[in-house]
Amino acid sequence: MSHNAPQPAGDRVMNTGRMPQPADPHTRAPQPADAQSTQQRNLSCVDSDGERLLFRILPVTLHGANKRIDTYALLDEGSSVTMIDDELLRDLDIKGERRQLNIQWFGGRATRELTTVVSMEVSGADKRKRHVLRNVYAVSNLSLPMQSLHQRDVQMWGNGARLPMKPYRGAVPKLLIGLDHAHLGLPMQTKRFAPQGPYAAATELGWVVFGPARDQPTATSSKSCLLAVSQEDAIQKMVNDYFDIENFGVKLTPPVAASDDARAQRILEDTTVKIGERYQTGLLWNPDNVELPRSYDMAYKRKVNIERKMKRNDQFKQAYMKIMDDYVHKGYARRLKQHEVALANSDKLWYLPHFGVENPNKPGKIRLVFDAAAKVGDISLNSALSKGPQHYKSLPAVLFHFREGAVGVCGDIREMFHQVLIRPQDRCAQRFLWRNGDDRREPDVYEMRVMTFGAACSPSAAHYVKTLNALQFQDSCGTC
Questions:
Q1: Which of 117, 173, 372, 407 is most buried (CB neighbours < 10 A)?
Q2: What would the pLDDT profile of 351-371 be if each residue is shown by its tens digit?
Q3: What are the Cα distances from residue 465, in Å, to 273, 305, 469?
Q4: pLDDT given at position 23
């Protein structure tokens, strides 16, 4: 059996985490390639002799300001930090500092998670002495392996082999104690039940049994392996779906981010700042040294087509002109002066064609879309942008969570993309042409100061800013 924190089973944690600035590189064992493509997970293997492996899991008590919780801890020398399931923090009512947790795998793959760093006290089960845990990272859904310790595991061979510890069944650790608190797992006394294990060690937190353990022999002599097969298997998929619905507290985290997603995530973190009451971020260029072709003629032709439609449909024209006026009035768009247009000399200069999408269920109302997929040759603005990491939840996951409470609440952020500013050096890629329907003169040049509906990176960037803003105010919302 293999364990992970906080990634799916099948990964072995080596070194995880870093301080926000600066950071030493840490490593983590890579996820098997087949696990990424088919989402298979090796759960456990039992050979003909009935051998299984025990991790260093033992019962502990966590102490908050006025509360205490009994749980299980995993002693893991392969982790450079100590982590706790954030569900326990809420139960203990412990507050901490928000920091970024970086997890890096071999091969340069990495992912980041915004966590809370806290300090707390821990003691062994039924022990009075408390030990301080500092810089503990709260991780959402710390998916550690379930393990059972049977009576026979602690009294199998020899006289005096029985240990002063209770067997347990189906224990899931909610605390991972890493090398930063290695003294808590340091063996002060050891016992060996057989030449090849299992072994036992007395630590500051109590006795812990680990290593190979031998179950009762079976009549069969063949080797069996318990394996969660590909989700293409209909029966296995039904079982997986059942546990996904019934066990919300145990969740697999998303797969390791691809290199493009990790790069886009760094751009978001490096460029996102708060300007007044709004956040400002950058476009997710991929790569940085983009050279876009001249797009003015393409945008001009598309504008002429829109003007023809406006002449044929006066209602459409009035709605379209109203949107443009609102964009300028609200500060979403800005008309450039002649000298600003003339001074533009950037490889990332791009003119966006625009069009209106009509909703048949809402007569007279249109949505203005900037066509970032429009091409000059084989190049479009979207082809030069990364989509960014997709962190938003799927609709089925949202619907499943409606079972957790009595009341479901939903909300809508009006003109969500337009609430986020684009940094000035990237706005030249969001120019567009407009002359208020008057085709007797040359069009004026405008640029969008905010995210556009149509850019490939807008959904990811908007979700990142929304989450960042929510985290800034999570402690000020009381019990709402």
A1: 173
A2: 999 998 887 777 778 888 999
A3: 9, 35, 6
A4: 35
